[in-house]
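The pair is quoted verbatim as follows:
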Amino acid sequence: MGEEHELAGALARDLQRIVKAAADSVAGAQSNELIDRVTGHLGVPLAQALVVTRVFEDWEHANIQAGVDAYLAEHGTVTDWFGIAGGQRGHEDLVGMLVAGRNHGLYELGAVDYRTAAIGPEAAADVVQLGLVGTVAPDGARVLIGVRGANPQYGQLQCRLEVLSGSRSAATAARDRIEQLMVEHDVLRGQVLAFGVSEHRGNELLTFLPRPTLDEGDVVLPEGVLDAVERHTIGIAEQGARLLAAGQHLKRGLLLHGPPGTGKTHTVRYLMGRLPGSTVVVLTGSAMRFVAKAATLARRLQPSVVVVEDVDLIAEDRSHHSGGGPLLFSLLDAMDGVGGDADVTFLLTTNRASQLEKALADRPGRVDLAVEIPLPDAAGRAALLELYSRGLNVTADLAPVVEATEGVTASFVKELLRRATLRAITARPEDPQVTIVDADLAEALAEMKDARGALTRSLLGSSDQERREPG
């Protein structure tokens, strides 16, 4: 009886070994091609493969691709790009997928996944979302380069560059060279960029904006104001090398302040166009919280300009600091963190300089020039009327309009011309060229000055209160 029991036990154990061997054989067959592709190129078993990783923001994805492409151009492609199929790829990292493919057959050789990434305001490029490619390290050792894009829906908010090799030093050298090439081929350099917030989890986004092109005649400011602004921004940029040689710093902070609608943003747009070789990073609204990242990006991509519009809004939150909100102090810290020899301009605008004065005075040197953009005087209003009537046949006498618009903003004058143009088109639809007559301007001005238009005037920056308090 005992012998029969031992025999049954032995048979059971043999059966277990057979089942396990069969399962291992099936799993190995399922993942064989994927694992063979990896180990065959590296020349070592998967268990001996080492991986070095670098994590990047999602908006660096196109740069990762540019760096990898440049590296492959330098060192050649030994094994073409390939992908990984099967399983729950959104939840696994690259090594995890390979191990699960080897041990359980959950992943197998597949096609490369691609996505489209912006590389300019109207340009995009295909980038690898998930894929590997075989090449060699600078010392000739075999390496696999893996690219993994962000997957916010799975909680993966960043891109990953991974290099596998049987030698850690080889993998590290390849990764470091790719990063050098990313800098050399940076698609963000020289662009106009804007930080924003995505709808998914509130993650940061970086979008490309077209660079504005404005002529000097498009900017109407009091005499000498634009010259001072250009000297502090464009002048320093043009003479940067000589200034550094003379022991002077390049980093500068410029604050444009004045009532709403006077042309601060318009002036900023003009400066963007006058600095075509500079990278511009724009922060507005909820994106203000990315000011530290914006400063880091500007330092990397210098010559550069960081534009922070309506900076007074970030000074209103006084929940943590007296005399300014936490975001304002983050901005000042970011400005301070950029070295003096960096060709970086911080260009700030505000409607209420009084909200910033104490914080800026307590931390001197962050802003080294404050320029008021005031309400236009009579000469300014006349110039604005001429500017915004380009392309129109104006027979109206503009002198009474200049006199009647004292205390209004540039935005008000622009809207006045549009309304007068609409009246002219409506009244004389048969005219081949739009002609503005006295009645068109008079009626449009009366409409805008009507008591019922008080809110409109306020929205155009021309409320009675603002005329009493121009600063």
Remarks:
- Confidence is low (pLDDT under 50) at residues 18-31, 318-324, 465-471.
- The two ends are 107 Å apart (CA to CA).
